[in-house]
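Ticket #94: bound-state structure for zinc ion.
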Amino acid sequence: MKRVEGTICAEGPKRCYVDIVIKLPCPECGSELGHDFNGSYLSHPEVGDECNANFYCEKCDEDGKPCEYNLVVKITKYAIELEYDETSLKHDGF
Ligand SMILES: [Zn+2]
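RESOLUTION: The complex was predicted; output attached.
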């Protein structure tokens, strides 16, 4: 079992883009396949949920072989990362 960690990039839980790319060798031809969660979002992700990552092999498609794969991935952590500039602290008027 492999775990990867990324940060939630935009639009919150409805459309959750994450900077995680899963790369796997094609079971048929060995070409590197990739699924980019920053390109296809997770919808309302919850820890413990399973979702599908789709993979497409261009080489197998060209060779007329089955070319689409599906990987079940489990969400094991839900994290938010914050960033701020300490020097931008401003008086709020009170
Ligand atoms: Zn292939």
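RESOLUTION NOTES: Strands lie at 21-25, 32-36, 50-56, 68-74.
TICKET STATUS: resolved
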